[in-house]
Amino acid sequence: MTDTRSIWDQLLVKVQEKFKSDIISTSSRPGVLAILKVRPESIVKLCTFLRDTCTFKHCAMVAGVDWKDRVEVLYHLWSDAFKGYLELTLDLPAEDPHVASVARVWPGASWHEREAWDLLGIRFDGHPDLRRVLMPEGYRFHPLKKSFELREPEELEVKSRHV
Amino acid sequence: MSELWVNMGPQHPMTHGLWNLRIKIDGELVLDVDPEIGYLHRGIEKICEYRRYNEVVTLMDRSCYVAGLAWEQLYFMASEQALGVEVPQRAEYIRVLCQELQRLASHLIWYGAWVQDLGLMTPFLYSVRDRDLILDLFQSFTGARMTYEYMRVGGVRNDVPVGFSDKCRKVMDWIEDRLKEYEALCDRSDIFLKRTVGVGILKAKDCIRNGVTGPMLRSAGVARDLRRDRPYSAYPELDFEVAIHDGADAFGRYRVRMEEMRQSIHIVRQVLDWLDKKPGPVLAENVPRFVGTPSPPPGLELYVKRRGFPKGRGFSAMEEPHGEALAYIINEGAEHPYRAKLRSPVFVNISAAKEYLVGYRVSDIPVIMGSVDVCLGEADR
Amino acid sequence: MAQTLYQFVNMIVVYLLNWWGPYWPTLSPYGAFWAVWISYVIVGLIVVLGSLFNVIVLIWWERKLIGRFMDRRGAMHVGFAGIFQNFADGFKLFRKQPFSPKDADQVGYYFAPAAYMVVSLLILGFLPISFGFFGGSVPLSLLLALALFSFAPLFIFIAAWSSNNKYSLIGGMRTAAQLVAYEIPLLLAIVAVVALTGTFDLSAIVQDQANYGWFAVPLILGLIVFFVAMLAEVERIPFDLPEAEAELVEGWNTEIGGMLFAFTMFTDYVRALVGCYLIVLLFLGGWSMPAAIASFPLAGIIWFQVKTYFVFSIFIWVRAALPRVRTDQLLQVGWKRLLPLSMVNIVWAVALVVLGWPHLHWPGGW
Q: How many CB atoms lie within 10 A of CB A156?
């Protein structure tokens, strides 16, 4: 157990050195191996390296968060060797957010990216099949954005705008 | 016959939930697959942002209605990390009890529905009746048979009643006996073996590449089980084995789930032994008062002015009956979560449909999709 | 004493007409004519209503027994132990508006299920249920029964095709393939029985079994082949893939609703009844019974029905216990396993004949 921990610590140091210009900051939280904040341009390069050399073969989750001034994309990767999750996070500008897709690196991430596009409007360049997955085709909004307000029933107008 | 796209769904007896499986077939052979989900999307993640932490429990029950307590625990583990609340030991054990009983109930109804799709109609009624025994157990301590609303931030709502342990042990003994009948009906049936062995193969490399987790992954020989690899709640102190099989086909997944049911019974017995011996509180005391009830507690505004709302992030991962589920809660200075993201195993397992459906016949589709164990509530949220 | 049902009914009708005759002067010159035709009509009614009633009781028995296999009670509320449940279901379907999809072929859609039912009910008209108890006596009754039985794939396919639905078409094609494939072992198993008796007349076959013992004993292989092939012919689990609910919703009758659907479901059970009758007549001795109970009134009919329901109970048992076989595996079993077995059975039957199996029906003796 301690062996794996120390191997991971050394590996993290090596990753930070190799991608010095791409990783903006590192932090940690109990429960994840590390949290790396990366530049959006280098996500695919970093992910390919993590998959091939650092045994992060499983992409568990790709999520988007809509802050008022920026959009944050979170990636959670699992390694069977280190038995833990690595969290990557990157920031995108709020208007027209787009980032390279990691669906070519892990096909398992493709539907997560479709969901992020569907609900938050984040475009993933290079995704093989970027279309809506939960909302019907032709829906005009991205519902999980903060600008899409959820009205409580008694506040609804007689004619809803969101039809 | 030339190739044509056929819709299996959204109204179809096979689908067990509301989704559309579009298949391109040439006679009996499946050439391409395009699953469409979203018919059951209720915006659970969006609604979470408008509810207080304890009020979200009703939504979590309904995200996977077959395994509600699993999703409740997933969400509460993440929000407890975000709010900095620690759960008492007895509550952790009760949560594990809920988890394993829920796993048994989910696998029992999976088994009944799956073999019914194969044409074997009788075990459906047997397994639903056994699941009913478990639902009676749930009713005795949570008060409900399906949508429990039992867990809270910091623990569970109430302790198990007196005499629960004996009842539960009787039910476990009964179900363990019945499992032998279910296995006899299937393992020794030539027709069943012919229909499930070698069907729907998804090898280990493809599983990992596509993010497939849960019994599908373990049937391919990969021994990953989050209860063992990244233990949470009371699992570090419990003893059980991870069920794996090396066939990577529908039969392998069936064997993995049967073995998981046995291990769940074993875990439940250990938990009952512990619960009998160690009484204690089941709800943490340092829970912030804003987590809420429908009517806010008196003095809330004063409290907020003095203490402020915390900021933090919580992340939890657990082995839900269908696979690996994750939750990420961002807490940003309000009494509601800022963002609640849930990762559903079924969402990802369906996305890999092209890998394990193409090349088989139309008659194999219910067998394969049944062995994947689809529950639409959590895929669509 | 009357030898056949017709003679029995004719006797009663003649007696009644003789009793009425003096009060009906216009009737008496044509008395014989009226007697014959009224007897025919009454015999027809008895056979038709009796068969319909028998099928409804058969469906009731299936629902109860399969319920018991599944640890539940089956229909309970309508009538004592659910006796009238099927009447209720039938009346419900009878009340429904007949409709057809707009793009379906109207003639085929309405004609095919009805023809399917009529042809299957025809068989029940001349299958003897007891000594002399049949609607009409035909020397080649076995051959005629099989010929009518084999009409089914044609009408099923017409119904499926006229429905103008992809699922129905797939189901119809599967059904036709399955029924045609399993006709052959069925017929070959019967050929073995005919080789032993030398006649196609069912009453004579039963008479042979009464004299020499049930054919199930020497032709056990034939019985097994016939049983499996009959399960496939009446589309029961494990061979019910054509109407597999999980895949094709309802197969070839997906689009058929209302009364036509009632016809279809009913005919499935008529064919199951015909299958059970044939098994009992050809292999299990028909209505031959131990002498101890021969003196009861209608003993032959009752004993025959007991045997039929016993065979049908095994059909139900198989349905409760086995999963469905896939189409290609099904066809493999039919062509590669049942066919050779039935050939072996024929060789065995001919060997028995050569070794001196006594039979008295070959023209010109043996």
A: 11
